[in-house]
Amino acid sequence: MDILLLGPPGAGKGTQGALLAQALGLPKFATGDLLRDAVKQGTPLGLTARAVMEAGHLVSDDIILGVIRDELAKPAAANGVIFDGVVRTIPQAEGVAEVLAGMGRKMDKILFFDVPDADLLHRITIRRQTETRADDDPAAVAIRLEAYRKQTAPVVAWYEAHGGITRVDAVGTVDKIYERTLTAVGQ
Ligand code: ADP
To answer: Do residues 45 and 60 lie in contact, with contact meaning Cβ atoms separated by under 8 Å?
Structure first.
């Protein structure tokens, strides 16, 4: 089963994605984590992506689609993947659909994690106190939210027009949201 998690920065995709991956025995694939790792290791990908990420902008569709193709070619991805924050533009949505179709697959479920803006800012502020992410400073956060509104919010409409999405009320405790997430994927 291939499951895409959509939602604004700070919506809890990473937390719920990890729980869901464990429950379903599928690998979780987060482009944000993969890129941060590449930056840490100083790989060519990391060197290219670093400044763009730290400023809060989106990495180019070409780079992301290359990363997605590599990930899907891995044996671990053969039975499905939890895509966490992987699709952030319409060209990426089209590209992933094409790669999956080439493997005889499709995005089986698209979950949209719904959180009001005020909660998002609060969550990111708290995360900043426990994790050190270069893009969690207020200026970069504002740019990430703007990138989300301009480039990623239309992706929700794209999926609505291509098979539909399932909304998950992502306000509440991690446990409560996890229950809703499991219900949303039919578990
Ligand atoms: P968040 O969703 O909270 O912004 P992530 O850890 O998911 O955080 O992503 C961090 C950064 O990585 C993004 O701001 C962006 O620069 C880059 N990134 C991750 N996934 C993508 C993607 N699919 N397309 C473009 N850029 C991406």
So the answer is: no
